[in-house]
């Protein structure tokens, strides 16, 4: 597993690097297919509350990434909190991929609880899974018209259209954490969008 530490507005000490490396083995234990772990440490200076450190952890596995972040008064505490969140999400992601005895399919979006989605922060990185959602820079074409000095910015992204069911679209929408999801409905063959309404209610918009 490749481990990378990136910083912004501060420099990390050898003590912090050793602290991170000592605990990184926990990630490999929970996700044996982990290809890379990135630790990003950012220091924020607030006018009222003073200095605050933010730690973002990103695990890259084949087909998706899992993220967690935390804020605290120092980077050691922020790292511990973020690692705790990441560990829980790695466990949930691993359990979801297991085929339990007597169960030969994954749960559908309608069978998953609010807690399941709220605590699982998994972002698929395949372009065909992230239609209409933020993706890795290498997976999308990002362009827009030139408005000169206008503050208006239009970002355009294109992704391969992979047919899926409404239930699958809802599942992926919750995993990427967006309020909507653009997909090609396998039942109708039409471009459609699922979106979140109040509570755990959803809507579907389809082009005729």
H/E element string?
A: EHHEEEHHEEHEEE
- Strand arrangement in the largest pleated sheet: 1-2-3-4-5
Text of the CATH class of the largest domain: Alpha Beta
Number of strands: 9
CATH topology of the largest domain: Double Stranded RNA Binding Domain
Categorize the overall geometry.
globular
Average pLDDT, to the nearest integer? 75
Largest sheet: 5 strands, mixed
Gyration radius over CA: 20 Å
CATH architecture of the largest domain: 2-Layer Sandwich
- Whole-number tally of structural domains: 2
Secondary structure: helix percent: 25-40%
Pairing-aware structural class of the strands and helices?
A: alpha+beta
Name given to the CATH homologous superfamily of the largest domain: Ribosome hibernation promotion factor-like
Low-confidence stretches: 108-143
Strand content bin: 25-35%
Distance N to C terminus: 47 Å
SS field, number of helical segments: 5
Structure description:
The protein has 208 residues and is an alpha+beta fold. The protein has 2 domains: 2-97, Double Stranded RNA Binding Domain; 126-206, SHC Adaptor Protein (2-Layer Sandwich), CATH 3.30.505.50. The chain contains 5 helices and 9 strands. The strands form 2 sheets. Strands 1-2-3-4-5 form a 5-stranded mixed β-sheet. Strands 6-7-8-9 form a 4-stranded mixed β-sheet, with helices on one face.
